[in-house]
Design brief:
Length: 373
């Protein structure tokens, strides 16, 4: 049977860990979508999403059913988004909310349209964008909630009108606490691991198959575990609002995929080889082609992020992220291996890339601050 959110909360407070997992599965996508639309950066939106569930879990005993569980969850997420906006405004690296390109994100979700439609939409987009940018943050948030999340005005008023709630603050005593929220296969779509088949047409670029195993420190396979990737298109352009370098977007490529590891801990993605892209880290700086990987391991809170490079890239020598790893062997573990046996004749090149969660041969995982895209 299907439990209501509120019933799952009650069961969860009663000690049933799986009930909270079900709430995570039910609300993870909407919360991530909200965070992404406010923030416009995938990694930060993921962090906000994860933090939202952590805080909800910690504060669950304080949820008295005075609001809908979803409203309560949205409020936590919004408070975290606001914290993010405040924090980013203090640092000059990213111009926060005015840079968020809501309409571009809406546009990319729609099926392909004629040139005339696109031109007309672009003009409209500019007008709406300008108008949105002039709105105070509260109103902009209200529009996002209404348009994308179909909340009622009363729910929006409750959310937006409320200052940072007591509920969204972690209690210091809880800081070391970590719940284990297992993600199930229910959230994976059939085409989620084939980034070349997510649109009506095929994306531009060199088709590749990226496969490998997720392993524990002792070489044992990590089974049934969520592996997510995100990457630039063949021109080195990311499909997110803050990537503004003048390389074209590909209407047939989102650059985002997910899958679960099988019995041997193996994952497989079909995608296209990403291009190098410029970033302003240093003079004439270009990042080598790479694919970002996120692995959850067995617990929801154990999210590890790493990057996969391609063999023999001429840009390794000047990449600060690659060269920040002092150990040559560890550095090489970030580089995938061309594999003729995985290469499919007349179709796609094969690359092998294992991810080791811990131990002597552990993969190199990103620091939280060291974040290029
Ligand atoms: Fe990147």
């Amino acid at each position: 049977m299907t439990w209501s959110d509120e019933e799952l909360v009650t069961r969860s407070i009663g000690g049933d860990a799986d009930s909270f997992n079900q709430l995570v599965l039910r609300w993870e996508r909407p919360i991530y979508a909200l965070a992404y639309r406010v923030i416009g950066r995938e990694e930060d939106a993921r962090d906000v999403c994860q933090e939202t569930f952590l805080r909800a879990f910690r504060a669950l005993n304080g949820f008295r059913g005075q609001a809908k569980f979803s409203s309560w969850l949205y409020r936590i997420a919004l408070n975290l988004c606001r914290d993010w906006v405040r924090r980013e405004r203090r640092t000059p690296i990213v111009q926060a909310s005015e840079e968020i390109d809501l309409m571009e994100m809406v546009a990319v979700r729609e099926p392909s349209a004629s040139i005339e439609d696109l031109v007309a939409r672009k003009e409209l987009t500019r007008i709406v964008e300008r108008a949105m940018a002039r709105l105070p943050e509260e109103q902009r948030t209200a529009i996002i909630l209404k348009e994308y999340h179909e909340l009622t005005f009363q729910e929006i008023a409750d959310l937006v009108g409320d200052p940072i709630g007591e509920v969204a603050r972690p209690r210091p005593a809880d800081d070391g606490e970590r719940g284990a929220f297992f993600l199930g296969p229910g959230r994976i779509g059939e085409l989620d691991n084939d980034l070349t088949r997510q649109h009506a047409g095929e994306p531009q670029g060199q088709r590749i198959i990226v496969t490998g195993r997720l392993l524990d420190g002792d070489g044992r396979p990590v089974r049934n575990s969520l592996v997510e990737i995100w990457q630039a298109n063949t021109g080195g352009r990311y499909r997110h609002a803050l990537d503004r370098w003048p390389s074209p977007l590909d209407p047939n490529f989102d650059g985002v995929g997910r899958t679960l590891t099988d019995h041997d801990g193996r994952y497989e993605f079909t995608t296209i080889k990403p291009g190098a892209y410029p970033w302003k880290n240093h003079d004439n700086a270009w990042r080598p082609a790479h694919i970002h990987f996120s692995v959850f391991g067995s617990a929801f809170t154990q999210r590890l992020v790493t990057q996969m490079y391609f063999p023999d890239d001429p840009l390794f020598s000047q990449d600060p992220i690659f060269n920040s790893i002092p150990d040559e062997k560890a550095r090489q573990r970030m580089v995938s291996r061309f594999d003729l046996s995985r290469t499919v004749e007349q179709w796609a090149l094969g690359f092998e890339f294992d991810i080791v969660l811990r131990g002597r041969d552990a993969s190199v995982f990103d620091d939280e601050e060291e974040d290029d895209e």
